[in-house]
């Protein structure tokens, strides 16, 4: 095994993952820099444990500009009483903490995108060191992993909980049972543009039950999407048997991303005008959006057309778009 040759992680936890009770502390990562010679990155973490039982690992802020996860998880860390728990809940509301503090997708220290940095390296960049700690220390403790995402500053999504199609069908079925329990307005069989380096892939390759979300976007959270996140995480803990009580059942619409045809990328930059909104259905070859050239007047817009019939599940968010940006994502109802 490659891991046996890796040096130990430089990260030390100020909490004891084996101790009963609620502990609020940090993952402390030494980070020597101009304003702090022997300084550290202090990633907040909570462990709530009560006896034997399954472990849930809950993460937000994998990308620093996505807020529903941090809102739900800082709140849960404050409120979760060990007396309510059977087993263990590990809560990291802001996994890529430097990115979260900067309000950016990637880390301002090393430009690291946490969800492209797995399996990570104990002697790599700050982002790679965090990824390595999650893979080698925290993921092995977990039975169920919930990693919150949203669109961030550059995308907006229909609110959905998701899992991936996996080679191990038993593992896949369990993951989709957790997606159903989460109870977002939409539930997605998710296809990735490129799964290499993702936390998702690292967890799934270890045989863990892994679910994720996309709950809105645009670099903020709404009352609706924050409420979906808070209800969803409680439902996941109930479904895992870690907290008692009935799942707060919600209607959900199942969606699938059947092929790469669901993605539409901009081939020109400009001012984007969407002709359909999230949740609306378009026919194959219909115009989803027009990109108006802004260099001068009198130029025809570039049209983004649907390569398949589907419902608009995600869209580029800010008003201006660049060549290569993901403009739209379509999904089909199952
Ligand atoms: Zn994300």
What does this structure look like?
The protein has 334 residues and is an alpha+beta fold. The strands form two sheets. The chain has a 15-stranded mixed beta sheet that branches. Strands 16-15-13-18 form a four-stranded antiparallel beta sheet, with no helix packed on it. Helix 1 (68-79) packs across helix 6 (223-239) and helix 4 packs across helix 6 (223-239). Helix content is 21%, strand content 29%. The longest helix is centred in the C-terminal third of the chain and has 17 residues, at 223-239. The model has no long low-confidence stretch (mean pLDDT 96).
Main attributes?
alpha+beta; 29% strand; 2 domains; OB fold (Dihydrolipoamide Acetyltransferase, E2P); 15-stranded mixed β-sheet; 334 residues
User: The biggest beta sheet, please?
Assistant: 15 strands, mixed
Order of helices and strands: EEEEHEHHEEEHEHEHEEEEEEEEE
CATH top level assignment of the largest domain: Alpha Beta
Briefly note the structural class of the backbone.
alpha+beta
Question: Can you tell me the CATH topology of the largest domain?
Answer: Aminopeptidase
The residue ranges in which pLDDT falls below 50 over 5 or more consecutive positions are none
Instruction: Identify the bound ligands.
Output: zinc ion
What is the name of the CATH superfamily of the largest domain? Zn peptidases
**CATH architectural arrangement of the largest domain:** 3-Layer(aba) Sandwich
Q: What is the helical fraction, as a range of percent?
A: 10-25%
Number of helices: 6
Mean pLDDT: 96
Fraction of residues in β-strands? 25-35%
Instruction: Please give the domain count.
Output: 2
- What is the oligomer described by this structure? single chain
**What is the CA–CA distance across the termini?**
41 Å
Q: What Rg, in angstroms, do the CA atoms define?
A: 20 Å
Gross morphology is globular
Number of strands: 19
């Amino acid at each position: 095994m490659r891991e046996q040759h890796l040096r130990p992680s430089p990260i030390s936890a100020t909490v004891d993952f084996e101790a009963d009770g609620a502990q609020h502390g940090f993952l402390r990562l030494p980070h020597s820099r101009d304003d702090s010679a022997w300084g550290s990155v202090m990633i907040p973490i909570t462990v709530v444990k009560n006896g034997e039982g399954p472990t849930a690992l809950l993460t937000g802020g994998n990308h620093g500009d996505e807020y529903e996860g941090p809102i739900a998880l800082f709140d849960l860390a404050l409120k979760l009483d060990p007396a309510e728990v059977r087993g263990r809940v590990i809560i990291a509301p802001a996994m890529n903490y430097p990115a979260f503090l900067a309000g950016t997708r990637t880390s301002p220290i090393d430009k690291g995108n946490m969800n492209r940095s797995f399996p990570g390296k104990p002697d790599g960049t700050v982002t790679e060191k965090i990824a390595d700690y999650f893979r080698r220390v925290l993921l092995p403790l977990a039975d169920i992993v919930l990693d919150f995402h949203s669109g961030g500053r550059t995308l907006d999504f229909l609110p959905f909980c998701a899992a991936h199609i996996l080679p191990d069908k038993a593992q896949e079925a369990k993951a989709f049972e957790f997606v159903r329990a989460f109870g977002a307005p939409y539930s997605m069989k998710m296809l990735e543009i490129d799964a290499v380096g993702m936390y998702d892939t690292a967890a799934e390759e270890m045989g863990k039950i892994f679910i994720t979300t996309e709950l809105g976007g645009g670099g903020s959270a709404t009352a609706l999407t924050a409420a979906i996140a808070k209800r969803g995480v409680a439902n996941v803990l109930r479904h895992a048997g870690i907290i008692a009580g009935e799942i707060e059942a919600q209607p959900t619409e199942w969606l699938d991303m059947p092929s790469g045809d669901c993605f539409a990328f901009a081939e020109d930059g400009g001012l984007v005008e969407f002709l359909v909104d999230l949740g609306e259905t378009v026919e194959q070859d219909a115009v989803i959006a027009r990109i108006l050239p802004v260099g001068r007047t009198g130029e025809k817009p570039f049209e983004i057309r649907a390569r398949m019939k589907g419902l608009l599940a995600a869209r580029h968010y800010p008003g201006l778009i660049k060549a290569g940006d993901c403009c739209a994502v379509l999904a089909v109802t199952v």
